[in-house]
Design brief:
Blueprint: H1 2-38, H2 42-46, H3 48-82, H4 84-123, H5 127-167
Helix pairs in contact: 1-3, 1-5, 3-4, 3-5, 4-5
Length: 170
């Protein structure tokens, strides 16, 4: 039963963490409105659509993660009651798959995207492309911050799952 509480706590922490995607999405959309209303220079006006797009993407990511984790929380008790050992094993498998995805996407692809966007700021003189690059960097930094914390939580959750799985009688 302790592992069910750990799984539920982990999923609740994920819901809370995913809400930050939505918060930053709202901030990006608000910035877009600010650039639209107050932007006087070409560069300021160029930020309208990139920040709006990034904000909408972050809102979609956040809403999707909140929904999936809330439904996961609801399904945990039934899955645990049905077969506790299978529940733990499926969670271990899912956690390992997720951690591998984090290693590839969050810690390799996102930094590469940030580097490419930073280089494009230096070499492209068009205000729209500079705005796109700056907005991309800002959005990737948000994703990197939230997902780095999620990765750390996932590792702790995985370690707890493995300790329960190895301590179970064979």
């Amino acid at each position: 039963m302790e592992i069910l509480k750990a799984a539920t706590d982990w999923a609740k922490a994920e819901v809370f963490s995913s809400a930050f995607f939505m918060l930053f999405g709202i901030l990006f959309v608000s910035a877009s409105i600010g650039f639209w209303q107050l932007g006087k220079t070409d560069l300021a006006r160029a930020f309208i659509f990139p920040t709006l797009t990034a904000g909408i993407l972050l809102l979609i990511i956040g809403a999707g993660l909140v929904y999936s984790n809330k439904s996961r929380i609801a399904s945990f008790p039934a899955a645990y009651e049905r077969d506790a050992a299978a529940f733990v094993q499926s969670e271990i498998t899912r956690a390992e798959k997720t951690m591998a995805e984090y290693q590839t996407i969050v810690f390799k692809v996102i930094p590469l995207i940030i580097v490419v966007a930073a280089l494009s700021i230096m070499f492209i003189d068009n205000p729209l492309w500079r705005a796109i690059s700056i907005t991309t960097i800002a959005m990737m930094v948000v994703i990197l911050m939230v997902d780095s914390n999620a990765h750390a939580r996932m590792e702790a959750y995985h370690n707890e799952l493995v300790s329960v799985d190895t301590s179970a009688p064979a």
